[in-house]
Amino acid sequence: MRPSPEQLLQHPHHDNKNEERREWLRIDDRLLLEYRRADEPLEAMNQYLSPATEDTIATAVSKPTIDLLIRAGETFAGSPLLPWVSKIDWMLETILKSMVKSHPGSVAIARLIDVDISAGGLGFDTPREFQADDLLMVKVILPPFSMIETMAKIIRVTPLEQGKAGFHLATQFVDLGGDEQELIIRHILQVQAERLRTRKTAHTLL
Description:
The chain is α+β, with helices and mostly antiparallel strands and 206 residues long. The chain has two domains: 1-45 and 111-206, Thrombin, subunit H (Beta Barrel); 47-109. 41% of the residues lie in helices and 27% in strands. It has six helices and six strands. It has helices spanning 5-10, 16-21, 54-72, 74-77, 81-102, 178-205; strands at 26-37, 111-118, 121-126, 135-142, 146-159, 167-173. It has a six-stranded antiparallel β-barrel with strand order 1-2-3-6-5-4. A hairpin with a 3-residue loop joins β4 and β5 (146-159). It is globular. The two termini are 28 Å apart.
């Protein structure tokens, strides 16, 4: 019998058998993501995407704070830090939007993308065609403010279903550190626990 997400969060283990059991931990999520081929320059990050807009900037800037509010609940909502965080978000968003207006295409920013993620790899759709065995430099932001920066090997490229342009990439992390792996696992367990609580609450209200 598999332990519940709440049990795994409360009683983490680090033995090899537990690491094997954790391989089944995978969720569909929506995360801020950037990627480029490993042999390309930093400037290649996000070049294949449409230029950043005011909407994509607002989403990228506000998401970490929104995630923090969701995770911390009333604790952070009543904190004197919240107005300062909101002010910083507003200032950053204003600056980036001004840059987009004056110099279109000048702002490279992470986009909110649907992904499936585990401690072993990442899957996502892309408008750009890559090849199996390509190496990608990947940056993904886990809620609320944890950045994972690592290399990932493409293990499978699948054209999207008919009528949709682009490809689905299945990747495997190559040099993910133990701390980063633990961040991903804890994020997955946290999301699973939150979704389980939501389902239980909805069932109770029926």
